[in-house]
# Entry
Amino acid sequence: MVRIPLFPAAGRPGKPGPAAAGSMLLAVLAAGIVSDGATAQVVQGRLVDPRERVGIGGAMVSIVLDDDRRLAGALTRGSGLFEITAPSAGRYRLKAERIGYAATWSEHFEIAAGDTLTVNLAARIEAISLDAIEVEGDGRCRVRPEEGLAVTRVWDEARKALDAALWTQERGLYQYEMMGVSRELDEDGRRVISEDRTFQRGYSRSPYVSRAAELLIEEGFARLSTRGSTYWAPDAAVLLSDPFLDTHCFRLRSDAREAPGLIGLAFEPVPGRRLPEIEGTLWLDPADSQLKWLDFRYVNLGLPEAVSSAAAGGKVEFRAMPNGTWIVDSWRIRMPRVEAFVNPLNGTRGMHLVGVAEQGGDVLRAHGNEEAVFTGDPGRQIPGVVFDSLQQGLAGARVFLEGTNVVAFAGQDGRFEISGLRPGTYAVNFSHPYLERYGFRPRPFDIDVPEEARTPAQVNFAAPTVWRIVDRLCREEERAEEAADPAPGRTADRPGILTGEVLDDRGNPQRGVAVRILSRDYAIWRGVPAVQELQTGLLVTTNDQGVYRACGVPVDTDLAVAVLKPGWDLESGRTEDDLVSDRAIWRNGIARVPSARPLAVLDFRVEPDPGSR
# Structure
C-alpha cells in the first residue's frame, strides 16, 4: 500500500483553510487486492482531533459532490473510524460534520469501481456558538435561507442531529423496549379521563417512523372524516426531505415560558398551501447546539373554531446516545375528539368538541449488541402514603389512577409511588380488601402532574373506620331515596346501622342471599285502651363479598336477624308471610345497636345450601 500525503483543506469547496485546520492522508489500495467480482467502491478512514490525536466519534462523514450534494454517509465510531460505500466510481470529496463545530472538508479524490480508498481527516477545532444569536432580529420566514444568516446557522446544527437520527433509524442499530400510551382527555386537554398502556419488549427497527414525505406534502398531514380521522407527525426523514424544505419557511423564535434558555427554529407552510399542514419549532440548546425537541401543531384543518381550541399537535423528543447516534425517545400526537349534531331549531349540522385524544410512546430501554445502552426517562411520579384508621401504614393498599390501568401497591409502611406519568390531571384513588367488603369507594384526589420535571405534592390517604364507611353508605342511600321520593319532611328516624358478612363453613362469601331484620314496635290507637304490639322489618341482600348492610334500624332494642335460604326473597314470588315465617330461616341471631354509637356487626357462618324447601 502506498500512502500519498496531500495538502489539507478546512473550508468549504473553493475555500481552503490553514494547514493545521484539517490535515488529510489519502491512500489507494491497488485494484488487484479487491476480490474478484467485487463492484462496490469503499471510502474508509478515521476522523481525529489534531490536538489530542484521538479519534472523534459521533460525527457524520459524507461523500459529497462539488455542489455539496450528499450521496452517502456514516457516523464515526467511538474510535473515529468510518466506512462509506460510494454509489459509483467518480470524483468526490469528504465532509465531516459534528454538532457544535465547523465542518471539515477533504481534498477531491478519484475512486475507481471496486477500489477501497483510505482518507484520514483531522477535524477542525472551531466551535460554533448559538449563544450570541439575536432572535429578535430579522423575523422574516425564509425558504432554504442562504449562507451567512443566523437562521441558517441554527438550521445547520439542527440538521446535523436530524441526519444522525435518520442514519441511526435506517440502520436499525438498536433494539427497543417501548411503552405505547393512549389517553383520552377532557375538552381542556388536561384532565385524564382514561389511559391505556401497552408494552413491546421485542425488537424494533425504529421506535418512531412517519409517513413518506412525498405523500405528506401531496396529501397533507391529516386525513379528516366523520368516521374517524388520521394524523401524521414528522420524523427526521420528513424534516430533511426536499419536498418539506421546498414547502416550508424558517425563522428564529424564543419562548421564555415553554422553552426557557433555548433557541427555536420555527417553520410554517409557505403561503398558498391549503392542505392539512403543520407548523412548529425545533428547539436547541445554544450552549452545546444540541437538538432537544420538536413541537408542532396542525393547521388548515377546516374545523370550527370551537373544535380548533383543542390545539391539535404534538411533540417529538430527540436523544443523543453516548456513541454519537441519535434516536427519538418520546413522542405524542394530540387530536380533537368531536361529535356531530343537528340543530333542532333550523336543522343545520355541526360538530362540537367532546375531548382530546392523545397517542404516543416512550422508549424505556435501547439495547446494543450485548447490553442496554440507554434507559429512558421514567416519567413523572406521584408518591404518597395510605394510613389506616389508627394512622399506621396500610400495607397492601391498591393505589390506582381512575380510568387507567396504572396501579401501585403500598408497602409495609403504607408508602407507594406511581411512576411513568405524562403531564395531566389525574384522579388518584385507593382500595383495600377491608373497604371492598362493604362495597365502599373513597373519594379520589385530583393531582396535577406538571410538564416540567418536578414531583407533585405527596398524596396521603386515610382509610376510614367501619363506622364511617357504613354511615356514609347509608347517607348516600338515604339521599337516593329522597331523590326518588322528595316528599317534604321525609327523614330517617331510625339512625342505627347493622352490618356483617355471610360466609359458608369454608369461608366463601354467600353473595345475593337475603338477610331479614325484625323488631318489635308498640303503638296506642285512639279508642283502643290497650297497647298494641307491632312487628316491623327490613330485607337486605348481600353483595359480592357476602356483606349485608341495613340502614335506619332501631337502636337500643333487640333485633331478630336471620339469613334466609337461597331463593327466599321478594323477587322469587314469596309472600311477606312466607318471608317472616321460620321456614325461611337458614341461620339466625340477635343483635342490638347502641344509641351512643349506632353501629352493630353480626356475622354468620352457614352450612351448605339447605335448598329452598
